[in-house]
């Protein structure tokens, strides 16, 4: 098991460059504020956001699931300007396809937390197709 924390501005240690999201010719941050586990098939992140805090801009090159551990109102802001407001509830489990660059903003009055599980055992695509929406 690998355990380390990000350099996302939350007072955590720096995370190695090889674990940061990458797109050819671009660079993005991490999908969470703390890396909890990684092996050859999965990567598990904890994402904790105080009110009005935002995650780093990032992109998921693999499909992933997130599980809400501390619910709240959040906003997905996509790099292309699209906005998606969510009211995530305790225990909610959401599967998402790999997609376009985004960040998550806590729009509530309480800390928000989820666990992100990326399925890294999938081979990344040779080219980066347009994001799919479920």
From TrEMBL:
Stretches with biased composition (Basic and acidic residues): 10-21
Residue ranges of the region described as Disordered: 1-28
InterPro entries: RmlC-like_jellyroll, RmlC_Cupin_sf
Protein name in the entry: Cupin domain protein
């Amino acid at each position: 098991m690998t355990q380390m924390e990000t350099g996302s501005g939350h007072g955590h240690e720096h995370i190695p460059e090889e674990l940061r999201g990458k797109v050819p010719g671009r660079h993005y941050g991490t999908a969470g504020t703390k890396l909890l586990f990684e092996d050859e098939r999965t990567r598990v992140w904890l994402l904790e956001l105080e009110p009005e805090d935002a995650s780093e801009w990032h992109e998921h090159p693999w499909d992933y699931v997130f599980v809400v551990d501390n619910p709240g109102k959040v906003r997905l802001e996509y790099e292309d300007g699209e906005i998606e407001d969510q009211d995530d509830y305790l225990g909610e489990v959401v599967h998402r396809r790999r997609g376009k660059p985004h960040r998550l903003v806590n729009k509530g009055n309480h800390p928000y937390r989820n666990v992100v599980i990326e399925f890294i055992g999938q081979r990344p695509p040779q080219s980066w197709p347009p994001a799919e929406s479920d």
